[in-house]
UniProtKB/TrEMBL annotation:
Entry keywords, A to Z: Membrane, Transmembrane, Transmembrane helix
Name this protein carries in UniProt: YrdB family protein
Transmembrane segments: 5-21, 27-43, 55-73, 79-98
């Protein structure tokens, strides 16, 4: 459980730091974002391939949107919009973790 939580929160933290600290994104930052994106995708391994809950699919879709928005931040978006998307993503992750928490037998 702890490992899967890290797969969610570390990429969100990386996106937040890059968005709020880096003024202009360049290729090394894009590589870091790509690695963070791939780590977030690894969070899906906690579910069986044919039994991914809907909230997990929604969370993944929100992270896709966050990733694309972050990539185009310098050309089209304000960092505040990325922070809002980060907040939405964090909220969805928390909801997913609460809903998919294993119940004691």
């Amino acid at each position: 459980m702890v490992k899967s939580v890290l797969f969610y929160f570390i990429p969100l933290l990386v996106f937040a730091v890059i968005n709020n600290v880096v003024e202009v994104l360049s290729w090394p930052y894009y590589l870091v974002l790509l690695v963070a994106f791939l780590v977030f995708q690894l969070a899906r391994i906690r579910y069986p391939k044919d039994a991914i809950p809907p909230i997990a699919k929604i969370t993944q879709a929100a992270f896709y949107i966050l990733t694309v928005a972050t990539i185009f931040r310098d050309q089209y978006l304000d960092p505040l919009i990325i922070n809002i998307l980060l907040g939405i993503g964090l909220g969805l992750v928390i909801i997913e973790l609460l809903q998919t928490k294993k119940k004691p037998a």
